[in-house]
Amino acid sequence: MPHTSTSRSEPARRPAPDRGRSLLGPALELIRTNRAPTRSTLTAALDVTRATAGAVAAELAALGLVTVDAHPVGSGRGRPSHRLAVNPDGPVVLAAQVHADGLSVALAGLGGTLGEAVYHPLPADTADPERVLTAVAEAGAELIRADRRRCLGAGLALPHPVREPEGTALAALHFDWPGGTPVARLFGEAMAAQALGARDRTPLPTAVGNDANLAALAEHRHGAGRDARHLLLVTSGHVGVGGALVVDGHLHTGSAGLALEVGHLTVDPLGRPCPCGNRGCLNVETDAGALFAAAGREPDPVLPLLDQARELARSADRDAQVRAAVDGVVDRLGLGLAGLANILNPDRIVLGGLHLDLLAAAPERLRETVTRHSLWGRCDQVPVVPAGLRHGGLAGAAELAWQPYLTDPQAVVEG
Fold it and tell me: Taking the model in full, what pTM does it have?
């Protein structure tokens, strides 16, 4: 990119000293999302001088977060520029997720890429939140100790609403936890009790959030929701259905973090009973259990339910009974999505978990149902697309753990 003069006639460009720390966060976000792969593009995106951009990139490199190629490269046009990238040997965070029938943990670098997810069964007494959260912490600590990279924090995705800012769990229907269980505090204490490596943050900062909210955030930043202004995510995990809305890059969580409990939208008033007390909720009409029941099959109680349900949906073209079950569940899912589209008017609907496989098994049927029952769908069809991330909840938990360092990258040297 041609060099631009920084004379007094350009008031928009300000010198580095007073802006250095405030520019680190925006610069890191540009680099980690590959919107600034070179120092030249970083200069243009931040609207600063080449010297300022170079100083910012050098500071992020000194913090161990990014790499700056020593030798500039060029494409034949303009001045060669240094490549910028997330440091593959830089720090990580722990991403954890509690499912209705197990828990999973993974380490995540800065660029949104997860390491291998490790699945564990839940402890026998799931009604005890401390026992469940301790099991998560122990599984996470095992991963952290086995990795040579420094761990900066831990994020946890939970399959039930989490009140903000207190970090308390409400209506933990899958586990029968008491209302108002202080999950944020309990998870922090469980992680603080673990023995970690000498280089890791102590105590390890922790954060918790609803799994669907976090998956939506990750899809918007790194997956199928990129560039959507009003992104609606609907997903079915191991049990139940969750949803979330991202508006202009920010989660719509309501007054206390409890908005968009889409699983309790009624799609069949005479349908299956839901733990919330109603019947025919999306939560119980379009999840893994609903698909198995419609197909007249019994899942293996030892294996993860979601994996079995996804495999069952993929067999629809080979089994007429499964095909009928898939079509019935898809019809109810379409009704739910149409109702949500009428209320929220999203510009993109992303489906995750089992719903991703239902979309693949009956794409035209699902889209036609949404269009037929949605006022906006009939006049301006809403794209319905599969999620782009394999483990959206874990990816979102990683985003949650990384957030303090995205806001202030120099925080990596503290603690």
Answer: 0.85
